[in-house]
């Protein structure tokens, strides 16, 4: 019987041991090298696997790529897109696009967790979408889609006991995604309460982190989408050989004009015809954003996580606040006053803590061919971004001086009415 | 609170392995501990129906009590009397919960019924079958405890295979001898590992990686004839592959686990893609379900029609019954146009297949039969089946009405 049992279970046990050994051992197995071509591909792939992973990002950032945090705007590849310009004009930097549709501050905070070494004392670009700052903040399903156990485990192995960690843990516990690993969930509960992790928990997290790191090394490069890199290469061909701002601005206008046709919002016709036109016929879109507000949101505290992290790593960040297409804004009834108030609130959060590199484009919503669609930058808008991004990244910058304040995690700040902002500023001087 | 999809992740399998180990040792030494089996059954049922899904757990308990009352009551009644109407009434009562669960989404805008739980269909099949065999007199010794074990046998509770009471009872009451049991373990382990390949590699590839992309492409390419396009064709094959590998993988887990518990639960799939015709396909695809339909709907209807001389020709009887049988199966999947069309499609396919086979038999000399026609038959059957799965998938519904 013993012999027969060994024949049945021997291979099974052996396989289990081998798999566990390969995954749990902190060895790189020769997968550490990422070729320049794959880095180029990963930097513009916008693939959720890359965002959730570590290996690709880490290697590329070590090789001179700069993290560009943001969301859906990155997928608008036209000739003035930062990735296209950087490639065409052989800039000293290359953008590594982090984020896609639905990724917001909380996702970005966890994305930063396993590239800390590559952010420390370096530069980064961060696009703040006003649309993130809705009443309920990040959507739970969108957060779940980009959620990475690897990043959470990594964060839990180096967290400190302070406001940032407690807030992050509490916020994560509100997300169904946190439940995907029972032990991680239990550890998060400890961190949220400010308790210490047990030895077993630390051992588990370390082992889990090793396993996930190995998995990421083995698998995150598989099935890397290449269509975006092809797009970048295509778009680069439309650019003149030598950079000249005025020539490019003219070209942006021409390209924009050609692509927008004669639709009412002066936006990309392709986008317009992809469902928007049909939706407009129903009349449901007229004034549908009348009561929308971006001024009270948990996103303000989530965003503070990112600021806090940048400050700890002494990362010099250039923030970009994109506008909203003015015609669209008027049609949908989105309040201009409210947008102005959002702008003031976010400015206060940034500047009062020493984040002074801000490219505020929020008043450019009516510049022709600035926006490719309703809320996303395009052509001349991208060029305006480049005008600030290029010198920021190419030239030496003065050392930033951050003064982080935990009050931005408070409910009071999250829900502060814009009318009370002046008073708040005065109180907190 | 831990909560799992059955066979959903590595932790579930790890727990399964640990729980089955004492049971395995027991069986190897000729002992079957009812108590231990009951305990691990309860443990895994709580994992599946507890925690955030506790409402399902409550629904399951009430449902089980209800079905036990019906089957037990009928078994007691049947010992003394045998009236047709009482039998029909009992069967109707037994399927009422399932009917409510299936009809609710259709009338309540897709909302799931409160009395539903994972596996309600499969439990109903088992209960109805127990009742029918009691009526036939083939099941004489109905035991509540055995019935409970049969219904709540955790490896197969959520999606089958649909075992039969008497077959299950025979295995459950006995202990396989060591040689035989070692063979069962070996098979069980092999099934579970093939299941890993099917469910976690192949079904993942087709279902999670390929299908969503094809769906987006198909939705973007609308506008042509009936909104059809090449991506729709790709989706049809990807969906069919996903359906097969996902369900066959799951069935392999369920059968493999049963084997390790010393219960030879019947297999659900037997190389369905090599069927030369649609009838053969249904003997190879979701076997326990199609045999259940064959034994308890098709055969019963045919007998009833013949007894009451409803149709003159036996072929008409068979054809009408095929259509009814498959329509019932369509309705069982859910009350939507595409499930019902799917049922009707397979009913018609069976009728056409029978007609063709009769024709072929009569004209044996003039209809060629060779390697090429065999391959062609398999190709045609597989593609017809894939097309029927495209209807079943609801993709056409999305293409046309959303």
UniProtKB/TrEMBL annotation, chain B:
Pfam families: MBOAT. InterPro entries: Ac/AlaTfrase_AlgI/DltB, DltB, MB_O-acyltransferase, MBOAT_fam. Keywords: Acyltransferase, Cell membrane, Membrane, Transferase, Transmembrane, Transmembrane helix. Pathway: Cell wall biogenesis; lipoteichoic acid biosynthesis. The keyword Oxidoreductase does not apply. The chain crosses the membrane at residues 12-30, 86-104, 110-128, 188-207, 244-265, 285-305, 339-359, 371-392. It is found in: Cell membrane. Belongs to the membrane-bound acyltransferase family. This is Teichoic acid D-alanyltransferase. It comes from Levilactobacillus lanxiensis. The gene is dltB.
């Amino acid at each position: 019987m013993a012999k027969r049992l060994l024949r049945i279970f021997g291979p099974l046990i052996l396989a289990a041991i081998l798999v566990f050994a390969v995954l749990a051992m902190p060895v790189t197995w020769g997968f550490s090298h990422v070729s320049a071509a794959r880095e180029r591909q990963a930097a513009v792939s916008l693939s959720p696997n890359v965002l959730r992973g570590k290996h690709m990002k880490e290697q590329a950032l070590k090789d001179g790529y700069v993290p560009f945090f943001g969301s859906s705007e990155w997928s608008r590849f036209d000739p003035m897109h930062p990735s296209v310009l950087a490639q065409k004009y052989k800039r000293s930097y290359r953008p590594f696009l982090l984020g896609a549709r639905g990724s917001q501050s909380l996702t970005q905070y966890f994305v930063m967790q396993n590239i800390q070494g590559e952010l420390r004392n370096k530069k980064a670009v961060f696009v703040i979408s006003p649309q993130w700052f809705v009443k309920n903040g990040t959507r739970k399903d969108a957060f779940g889609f980009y959620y990475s156990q690897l990043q959470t485990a990594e964060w839990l192995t180096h967290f400190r006991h302070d406001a940032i960690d407690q807030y992050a843990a509490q916020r994560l516990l509100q997300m169904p995604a946190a439940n995907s690993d029972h032990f991680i969930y239990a550890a998060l509960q400890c961190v949220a309460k400010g308790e210490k992790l047990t030895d077993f928990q630390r051992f588990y997290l370390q082992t889990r982190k090793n396993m996930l790191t190995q998995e990421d090394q083995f698998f995150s490069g598989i099935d890397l989408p290449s269509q975006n890199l092809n797009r970048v290469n295509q778009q680069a061909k439309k650019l003149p050989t030598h950079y000249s701002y005025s020539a490019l601005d003219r070209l942006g206008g021409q390209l924009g004009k050609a692509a927008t046709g004669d639709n009412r919002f002066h936006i990309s016709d392709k986008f317009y015809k992809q469902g928007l036109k049909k939706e407009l016929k129903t009349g449901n879109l007229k004034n549908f954003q009348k009561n929308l507000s971006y001024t009270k949101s948990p996103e303000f505290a989530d965003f503070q996580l990112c600021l806090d992290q940048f400050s700890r790593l002494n990362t010099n960040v250039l923030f970009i606040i994109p506008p909203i297409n003015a015609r669209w804004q008027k049609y949908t009834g989105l309040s201009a006053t409210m947008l102005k108030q959002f702008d003031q609130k976010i400015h206060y959060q940034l500047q009062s803590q020493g984040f002074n590199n801000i490219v505020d484009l929020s008043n450019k919503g009516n510049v022709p061919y600035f926006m490719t669609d309703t809320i996303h930058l395009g052509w001349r808008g991208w060029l305006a971004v480049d005008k600030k991004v290029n010198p920021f990244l190419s030239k030496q910058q003065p050392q930033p001086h951050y003064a982080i304040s935990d009050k931005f995690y408070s409910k009071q700040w999250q829900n502060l009415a814009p009318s009370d902002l002046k008073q708040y500023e005065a109180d907190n001087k | 609170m831990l909560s799992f999809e059955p066979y959903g992740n590595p932790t579930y399998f790890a727990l399964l392995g640990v729980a089955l180990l004492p049971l395995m040792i027991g069986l190897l030494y000729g002992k079957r501990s009812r108590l231990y089996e009951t305990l691990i059954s309860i443990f895994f049922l709580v994992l599946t129906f507890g925690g955030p899904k506790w409402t399902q757990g409550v629904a399951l308990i009430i449902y089980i009590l209800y079905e036990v009352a019906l089957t037990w009551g009928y078994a007691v009644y049947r010992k003394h009397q045998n009236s047709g109407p009482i039998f029909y009434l009992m069967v109707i009562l037994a399927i009422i919960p399932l009917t409510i669960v299936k009809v609710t989404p259709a009338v309540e805008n897709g909302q799931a019924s409160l009395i539903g739980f994972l596996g309600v269909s499969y439990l109903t099949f088992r209960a109805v079958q127990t009742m029918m065999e009691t009526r036939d007199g083939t099941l004489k010794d109905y035991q509540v405890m055995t019935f409970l074990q049969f219904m709540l046998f955790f490896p197969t509770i959520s999606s089958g295979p649909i075992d039969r009471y008497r077959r299950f009872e025979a295995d459950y009451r006995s202990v396989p001898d060591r040689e035989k049991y070692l063979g069962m373990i070996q098979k069980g382990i092999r099934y579970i590992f093939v299941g890993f390949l099917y469910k976690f590699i192949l079904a993942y590839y087709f279902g999670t990686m390929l299908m969503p992309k094809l769906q987006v492409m198909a939705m973007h390419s609308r506008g042509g004839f009936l909104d059809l396009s090449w991506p729709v064709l790709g989706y049809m094959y990807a969906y069919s592959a996903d359906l097969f590998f996902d369900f066959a993988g799951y069935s392999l887990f369920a059968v493999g686990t049963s084997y390790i518990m010393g219960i030879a639960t019947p297999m659900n799939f037997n190389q369905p893609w090599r069927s030369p015709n649609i009838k053969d396909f249904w003997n190879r695809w979701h076997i326990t379900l199609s045999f259940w339909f064959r034994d308890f709907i098709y055969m019963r209807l045919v007998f009833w029609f013949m007894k009451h001389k409803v149709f003159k020709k036996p072929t008409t009887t068979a054809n009408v019954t095929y259509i009814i049988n498959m329509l019932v199966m369509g309705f069982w999947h859910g009350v939507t146009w595409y499930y019902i069309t799917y049922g009707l499609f397979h009913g018609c396919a069976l009728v056409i297949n029978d007609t063709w086979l009769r024709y072929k038999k009569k004209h044996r000399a003039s209809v060629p039969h060779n390697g090429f026609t065999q391959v062609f038959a398999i190709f045609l059957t597989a593609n017809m089946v894939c097309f029927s799965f495209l209807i079943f998938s609801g993709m056409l519904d999305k293409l046309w009405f959303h």
